[in-house]
Amino acid sequence: MTDAGEGVLAAALRDHGRAEAIRMGTASLTWSALAEASRGMQAALEGAGVERGDLVAVLAPPSLEGVALLFAALDLGVPMLPLNARLSEIEQAQAVVESHARFLVVAPGEPRGARLAAEAGCGLLELSAAGGARPLARLASPDPRRADAFAAAAARRRDEGAALVLRTSGTSGRPKGAVLGLDNLIASADGAASLLGSAPSDRWLLCMPLFHIGGLAILLRAARVGASVVLHARFDEARVARALEEEGITRVSFVATMLERVLAVRGDRPAPASLELVLLGGGPASDALIERAEALGYPVAPTYGLTEAASQVATRPPGADRAEAAGGLVPLGGVSLRIVDEAGTPCAPGTVGEIRVRGPIVMRGYLDDPEATRAALEDGWLVTGDIGRLDAEGRLRVLDRRTDLILSGGENVYPAQVESALEAHPDVVEAGVRGVADDTYGARPAAWVVLRDGASLEPDALLAFCRLRLAGYAVPVRIERVDELPRNATGKLLRRHLRER
Questions:
Q1: How far apart are CA 97 and CA 271, in angstroms?
Q2: For the whole prediction, is pTM greater than 0.70?
Q3: DSSP E strands: which ranges in 97-169?
Q4: Can you give the residue range of the structural domain that contains 34?
């Protein structure tokens, strides 16, 4: 293992240089070739005028060149801001301007690049296509009128030790930029390896977006031990199903909707024999989904994580004893968990409250937002806004987001638990629940469901199904059938948009 100062690829290069590091389609790089590409990218960044601390925004689909850029930036001390390609151009411009990004890197021929760079006054760099003579082409220089602002921002990023700035998903409000250091990323990768094991023989399937910490973390985990990564440009359930069957994949990371779609493609076929780990994160997964996957032999490891904590916080290893399908999550090494009440007082085991996290994985803070940082970090503890409980052994069960909690007649209703009950019905593919105003109770749960093709389940029948599984106050007051649920780019359910339907 290396430390943060030795170079991110040093250990993999030293011990596994000839082994395959990453494959995308028919193209692949060994660890030696990836290190060489990273060194070339470092030289290209410095030649374009990028300096340590300069924030570089990136708008490009996953590629081998993009992976080389990531490792080059980490070694140079150049923090990166990966942009969500699915955001509107206005939202992308807002992210670039607010972060004081001095450069924007785009894919070849990206039409938004020039407009975004002009609006932000930043320099514009273009990734060369595979086989290009230069890794980066400089298309525009930063606006000299913004030189002082860029220099001040770079000084702040250097002082923070920033490596990545990741925009939060915005599921509970306006997105903010979580600042992560290289030490956070390494602590996360090593903590995951300690809990779940990690070896050069691992073969990861990376089908998560690379503007999301869940995808980026896989690259760091692989680099720490010299494992290989199969990179997909985007998630496609049929292609993922083929890769699991044919490419010797041992590890994969999904959110619940991704696993649901892969299971739908593969049907009742058992999990491939090579598959050793299915990390399942992105929010609480239903017990029904976990149990269905496990019955087919999928080694599911329910996971709780946050962007602000460099991805994984707690995970239940596959096959571990547990009382609940989605419970029994064990914190990563060096990570402490506590549950607190509304006054911030630690709760006894078994008590429901807010989850707080402490350890080397916790972010520096929010980018240029001291007020939000103070609210999120209290005495070294990350205030997550998530609801859960710890058992007597310190294992975690995540119940929901505090902002999604429904207070109904003095009772707490957790939408994720109601969704889990609905998804236990064989005709329900997925469900979304949120509170609607009620004159008597203050709020009551309402549900929106996606049914399997050909199903004609009536709402009354589904309500009767719920009454057998939920307390009366948690049974939805109405259920509506929809074609799809609103989700963000990483598959998280956007409950606040359900009411708009």
A1: 46
A2: yes
A3: 103-106, 123-127, 136-140, 162-167
A4: 10-160
